[in-house]
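Appendix B: complex inputs.
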Amino acid sequence: MSVLIVGSVALDTIEAGGRKVKEALGGSAVYASVASSFLTKTAVISVVGKDFPKKHIDVLKKHKIDISELKISEGRTFRWTGKYSCDFNQAHTLDTQLNVFERFKPIVCEKNKNIDYLLLANIDPDIQFEVLKNICNVKIVALDTMNLWITTKLKKLKKLLKLVDILFINEDEAKQLSNSKNLLLSVKAISKMGPKIIIIKRGEFGAMLFKTNELFFVPSYPLEKITDTTGAGDTFAGAFVSYISYIKNIEIKTLKNAMFYATVMASFNIESFSVSKLSNLTKKEISSRLKMLKKITEL
Amino acid sequence: MSVLIVGSVALDTIEAGGRKVKEALGGSAVYASVASSFLTKTAVISVVGKDFPKKHIDVLKKHKIDISELKISEGRTFRWTGKYSCDFNQAHTLDTQLNVFERFKPIVCEKNKNIDYLLLANIDPDIQFEVLKNICNVKIVALDTMNLWITTKLKKLKKLLKLVDILFINEDEAKQLSNSKNLLLSVKAISKMGPKIIIIKRGEFGAMLFKTNELFFVPSYPLEKITDTTGAGDTFAGAFVSYISYIKNIEIKTLKNAMFYATVMASFNIESFSVSKLSNLTKKEISSRLKMLKKITEL
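Resulting structure:
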């Protein structure tokens, strides 16, 4: 089974924990696809500008990510500049330059039209919709979004929600989308909008899974030092979808294990800037954290 | 085995979720002892004024709580007036009247001097210390505290920490006490101050247990409606200590189960003002929530 991911490929300039990186490899499709590549064949639909460094392409190639639909357009790559509060609870966007994304019209090639698992990673809902309508016979569609799109493109987002199986959303955004202050009432309201499975991302407090009447909670993996939380949600989503595509079902047991796997992958991601840590992970490191996460949550 | 609890007995006036109660039964010793009474014989050391309503005494009597050391002094009972933000994340103290607590000197009677389990519920560290120094041969001493005492009585609090086995503290307070922004580093720093076992209360995000190199996380019990979170931490502490006194050890398995039990008892507490819900609980209701909490956390 393989996973197709549409999302952004970006150059991120980030200040966090007193350190700074300039034009590092970032974007939702990058974090999600690198995370996904450990378990399954992964393809990316996105766009970069002619200025996009070859060394970044090499990172994706190293993970055997299919980049035949990573379009290289005239113009500059999407850029994001952000700064984190010292406890990482707040990300302040200092600058966003859409650049090549302003005119991006994704075209899905023949080989990807019959993909089984599609992740619409966090990006403009118009682009997510464009990809989704070009896919046939997809088994599972997962969608990640953010407060910006809830505020600016609610109508299109709600149209999309009717068509997706799995929604990734953080707790505040879920409350915003459902207009409720209670987490349980929020997920119940959102489930009526379409997605059968809702995953609430709670940052340092972990994540919650909702599937009809089933709930499942997982804490975040405890770390003594965090370097940069950029891409944690994208990593979580990519790892989650790769896990269910690997197991080939969405039974509750599979979903619970996917929550564990995604939590562990996200924990590695926040230990470095960009995908530096993620892209050098060993299977042993992953299984060791999975074992520990089990130990600190089971009775 | 039995548990001795020192803490406040209060008359609380509370505004929460658009509702208000006046002079309701409250105080850390009340919540903790009612929670504790379900599993073990429980005694309270505290003080009230002559104005303390008989109906409130009757609640404690109904739970067979030993109130022979609940002193009735000349003067008025301790009063607290507070208001919660609509998401219950902030409690604003509008008024505090110490009244009879201003001159309270706890005296431990002979029968309680040889208690096995002592809970120093949230109250002035001077009072906690006074009780502790009068106890002999105690097996386990647990302490709950709050930001007020970290700010105003840090020296006495640190003296106490050297003498306690278990500390209950919320996440922000732990970070304040340890001067660290990282949860893991916080508990490691606090464990060097004395307590072998540290329980971090995280409100709606659950709780974490730390014991030397063992960690354990439990989410809060998911509820669609919260009425008043006053006393949730006291209920948690009382239930936790009652559980270990009931099982008679502090092995990691016992502590993990105590975390579950305390989480469930706290969830009932926040469904009503005062101890209304807690004091009418059935064993069936408790075991049903324990079962559900297990279901939503185990793989």
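The radius of gyration of chain A is 18 Å.
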